[in-house]
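job 3f2a | input accepted
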Amino acid sequence: MHLTDGPSLVFSLRHVFGEVNPDLVQAGPVQQGAFLTALAGYKPLVTMSWGSDLLVNAARGVGRWAAKYTLARSNVLICDCQTVSNAAQQLGMPPERIVAFPWGIDIRHFTPGGDRGLRARLGWEDNFVLLSTRSWEPIYGIEILVAGFIQAAQANPNLRLLMLGGGSLQPRIKAMLDKPGMLEFVHFAGQVDYPDLPAHYHAADLYLSASRSDGTSISLLEAFACGLPVVVSDIPGNREWVESGVNGWLFPDGDKVGLANFIIAACQTDLERNEYGKANRLVAERRADWKRNFKSLLMAYELAAATRRMVDG
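job 3f2a | predicted structure (313 res):
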């Protein structure tokens, strides 16, 4: 969305609201859908944070102004972790109008199981397989992840990397892997359909994420539910789920050497990995079940209706 598009989009929204007359609007991210809804003057507004909108885009400038404007006109903010809630409070959102809960996943779809022969098709039955599912964008630290893998694989040639997705950094990522001759150690799976996602988690021994900023990562929860141990960046959103040495490993944000060291160490600790994987499945069952967490969303709607008159416009 460009600023010049704002007036026409707001006009269109007002027309839609006038025709539909909704009882409530849920909109996000903060500086886009929710911002336009706030500009249109619609209430009650339930603003849904996407994580980076408040953790990154609201750091300064127009993004910060738009976030403050939107939150001041939101009846309720829903977000997926305490880290995002704290950021919203710093921007002026009253804590009593914030509903924070992990969106969660279908823990019956993502569950420990077989890989449908994926490792065999790749010829990786005897290898140690690492899994990356994040988009190939700077915010997800994909270059750090690949650099850490290259260093670890040079020390342990038995390592293999299964990479899902894609993104704007694709040429850079493939060039990084080509120079040290690591392309044959990596399988680029591309975009994987939802029914096939569990098999890719099941084909891995360890889940990796080097994200520079996150709320509650859905792919992390999927890995948990599939019973995988994890090595992830030490950022606030991840610390709400991973305790290093208890159910996974946290490496310093942006530290490719630290990531490589944890990968190498994880290869050598079969017992710990198994224990961490079991622990993560239990965490997913307790905290990441969407069927259970969905009730918090309904509570947010009820709160929005109850506080409709409390928000100035």
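job 3f2a | The chain has 14 helices and ten strands.
job 3f2a | closed
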